[in-house]
Amino acid sequence: MAKWTAKHEAPEPLEGPVVATVTGGTILWFALFVVQLPFYGWFADRGQLWWVWTCAAGGFLGLIGIWYVRGRDAALKRHAAEAEAAAEAAERAERNE
């Protein structure tokens, strides 16, 4: 069986407001959890408690996601600043020669 190889370059990943998106999703999961709490007995009577706990799990996993994407965003900004500083230093060195 032959190994598959790409015929063209992969596109650049899309960047957007990742931190805001994950934060909004986390808030939504927690809001759904809170909205379902008054109906806990109704869900329990029908064997559907997983709906409530899925929303709670989504909210807590979202907190981990917020921590992760904030660190990723900070690392990307730090890398961009370092690259810009290196480019400026190279440009200054080129002018001084």
Mean pLDDT equals 92
So what's the overall shape?
Answer: elongated
State the order of secondary-structure elements, H for helix, E for strand. Answer: HHH
Helicity level, as a percent range? over 70%
Largest sheet: none
Number of helices: 3
Number of strands: 0
Pick out the low-confidence regions. none
Beta-strand content estimate: under 5%
Cα gyration radius (Å): 23 Å
Distance between the termini: 56 Å
Structural class: mainly alpha
Brief characterization of the structure:
By secondary structure, this protein is mainly α. It has helices at residues 18-36, 40-45, 50-96.
What does this structure look like?
This protein is mostly helical. The chain contains three helices and no strands. The N and C termini lie far apart (56 Å). The model has no long low-confidence stretch (mean pLDDT 92).
Keyphrases for this structure?
97 residues; 74% helix; elongated
Layout of strands and helices, then pairs:
Blueprint (H helix, E strand, L loop, with lengths): L17 H19 L3 H6 L4 H47 L1
Helix pairs in contact: 1-3
